Prior knowledge:
By secondary structure, the chain is an alpha/beta fold.
Amino acid sequence: MPIPHPARPNPMASTAPASTHELLQHQDLWRARAGVAHAGPTAATGHAELDAQLPGHGWPLGRLGEILLAQIGQGEISLLLPLLAQRTRQGCPLVYVRPPFPPNVPALAAAGVDVQQLLLVLPRSEREALWAAEQLLASRVPSNVLIWAEHADERA
């Protein structure tokens, strides 16, 4: 059952892109091939070669990131482990939304992730998963939200 939230104005509503072309021109979108520096706070990835390639030399904090793979389950979590370990030790929850496989709790713990900060959200559909992720992000509680979405479009 959804938790009702009081209506609040959406600060992005007036600036929301109307088309994919407008979305792709948005100032907050960074493309690796463009090589343009990205303003804002970052956290080291824990992988020196990757840090050297990323704007700000790390993962952008407070922003959406996307990891594209040919197939889910090919190491996407291992890429994030150093950041997730650091952030969970700082008290930031780690939220898995609709993961394709159950979290490997022993591997997370061995990598330094505070598994007491792990929350698993298992919605029935991708649409509900997107809604859950939106609610988590709208809460403004500092957290690490990982969502697996296979059919999300640019608006999602």
